[in-house]
Design goal:
Distance between the termini: 50 Å
Structural class: alpha/beta
Radius of gyration: 26 Å
Strand order of the largest sheet: 8-7-6-9-10-11-12
Number of strands: 12
Largest sheet: 7 strands, mixed
Helix content: 40-55%
Strand content: 5-15%
């Protein structure tokens, strides 16, 4: 029989019974990546939310959690497993994920986006484990509005959407293309300070023509050949209509659509909702800004350059058109500007009258009558002796030794930009470019090679700031002039260690400066609300979220 003293002791130890609803709420709190703090929940929070027992007793901090995850990353065998680890972290604790990314952008950027995201898309079905964003499949076309109506998406300001058909230089990845919107929006948060609840990745699953993906037993997408033609257009129309009704002021970024769709979708919808295509416009502005910085180093003017674009798809043609606009702004006529640009595609130099040209290729086609057809890249370089060679072809090794030496023979400091991603699809390795030009080349690459003096020409220098500026000023559309303003602002920023652009560590500052320039341009062009002044850097900075626990 127990003693009265024992009963008193037992009574002191007794705690109130936690209601089942509290238990359920505690588990929901830990399951939601936007509210989960893991070991960083304080003692008082554990009391209030019924978290005791669900967490280890240690009370941690955000800094100690970052240190733990960094140590885990250090112990992993390769970057793909680091990518998968970070994706899982993002899906369990978004504050910690973004704090980790923001603390070490130079290391994290290649892990959460290019080049590692390429393998992440190829192996997406292998590592998919919990929902993030929305998969809007063709069979669910009639449900799109209902899917978007989820109150969890009430705060959305930015959508990045892809149909997975042209993922980097890897082609059709179907549902695996979701890795691109997820990665891009992680950069919006890291660089432009968008709160994670304000961004939404979307994959339009219209099937895939990649038989290896479709036949893979692990494939998570719709197992069907790609829907095309009128059915595809009707599906896109349903999507855009539902988005514009749900979020009238949202920014929609088109990402990694194949060339035959990229331009026409941009043209069709750019005035119906605030939107842009990063492959066309973001790539072009980044390339222009970097080129202007290179020309500042070599001397001369943009109008003096002879520019060869190798790859006349969405990205290459987008670069060409923005170059034309920049030269016109500097005083050339449109016709004069186009004579400074030579576009080369898989069938050789793009010449007027060639069969199968798209409208964007036709606009850049040459009209000389004495051009031998076909004229390949080497023949084009030998013929015109370009000062600038830009690659967006996805053809590894296309800038071979013969091409580069022929170019270097005619110019003191050849400007070479092999921009294709991932590294396996780059037109050249930068060390080869330096070797073949006796160290005289000015080199920019799309992927990080880790070679001294090489500039990474990454869209992350442009698109976060463009989106942030357009939202800050309340623009009703994103104009080519706004991208021009972004490119020229980027070109004013100094690089380090021989590079043309600022270091990755300054990406938030870069986004802020680009956003301010874009907002000013929107006001100047009259696409911002009437009588609204352009926001200052301080105004925009005040809106930028920083990853920390509330």
């Amino acid at each position: 029989m127990s003693s009265p003293a024992g009963s008193a002791c037992a009574s002191k130890r007794r705690t109130p019974v936690i209601a089942p609803a509290i238990h359920a709420a505690a588990r929901a709190l830990l399951a939601d990546p936007l509210t989960n703090k893991g070991t960083a929940f304080t003692e008082a929070e554990r009391d209030a939310f019924g978290l005791h027992g669900l967490l280890p007793p240690h009370i941690g901090t955000l800094e100690s959690q970052i240190d733990r995850r960094t140590r885990a990353l250090d112990g992993m065998a390769d970057d793909f497993h680091r990518y998968a680890f970070l994706r899982e972290l993002q899906d369990s604790n978004e504050i910690l994920f973004h704090a980790l990314v923001q603390r070490d952008l130079p290391r994290m950027l290649p892990l959460i986006y290019t080049p590692t995201v390429g393998e992440g898309c190829e192996r997406f079905s292998e590592i998919w484990h919990r929902p993030r964003g929305l998969f809007l499949s063709y069979p669910n076309q009639h449900r799109i509005a209902d899917i978007l109506a989820d109150p969890a998406f009430d705060r959305v300001k930015v959508i990045v959407v892809s149909d997975g058909e042209r993922i980097l230089g890897l082609g059709d990845q179907g549902a695996g293309g979701m890795g691109i919107p997820i990665g891009k929006l992680a950069l919006y948060t890291a660089c432009a300070g968008l709160h994670p609840a304000e961004v939404l990745p979307i994959l339009l699953d219209v099937g895939t023509d990649n038989a290896a993906r479709r036949d893979d037993p692990l494939y998570v997408g719709w197992r069907h050949a790609r829907v095309r033609g009128d059915e595809y257009d009707a599906f896109l129309e349903s999507f855009v209509t539902a988005v514009s009704e749900r979020w009238p002021n949202v920014l929609l970024q088109w990402e990694d659509f194949a060339g035959h769709n990229a331009h026409r979708l941009l043209d069709r919808y750019r005035d119906r909702l605030l939107s842009f295509n990063d492959d066309i416009q973001g790539t072009a502005a980044t390339a222009l800004g970097t080129l202007l910085s290179a020309i500042r180093r070599t001397g001369g003017a943009l109008a003096d350059q002879r520019i060869v674009l190798f790859g006349a798809g969405a990205a290459g043609c987008g670069i060409g058109e923005l170059l034309v606009r920049a030269m016109v702004a500097d005083g050339l006529s449109d016709g004069e500007a186009r004579t400074r640009i030579w576009a080369v595609d898989r069938d050789g130099l793009v010449v007027a009258g060639m069969p199968g040209l798209t409208p964007s290729q036709t606009a850049l086609a040459r009209h000389e009558t004495d051009i031998p057809i076909p004229l390949d890249l080497l023949g084009t370089v030998e013929r015109i002796r370009p000062t600038v060679l830009v690659g967006t072809s996805g053809q590894s090794g296309a800038f071979g030794e013969a091409v580069v030496r022929a170019m270097a023979a005619g110019v003191e400091h050849p400007i070479l930009f092999p921009l294709s991603n991932p590294i396996s699809r780059a037109e050249a390795h930068p060390t080869d470019l330096f070797d073949w030009t006796d160290g005289r080349a000015i080199v920019g690459t799309g992927s990080p090679f880790g070679v001294a003096g090489v500039t990474q020409v990454n869209n992350v220098f442009i698109f976060p700031g463009v989106g942030l500026g357009a939202l800050a000023v309340g623009a009703r559309c994103v104009t080519e002039g706004m991208f021009m303003a972004a490119a020229r602002e980027l070109a004013t920023m100094d690089g380090e260690g021989g590079t043309l652009l600022p270091p990755i560590t300054r990406l938030r500052d870069i986004a802020l400066r680009v956003a301010t320039a874009v907002a000013r341009q929107a006001v100047a062009e009259g696409v911002a609300p009437a009588n609204s002044p352009a926001p200052t850097e301080s105004d925009i900075l005040a809106t930028m979220w920083v990853a920390r626990y509330d």
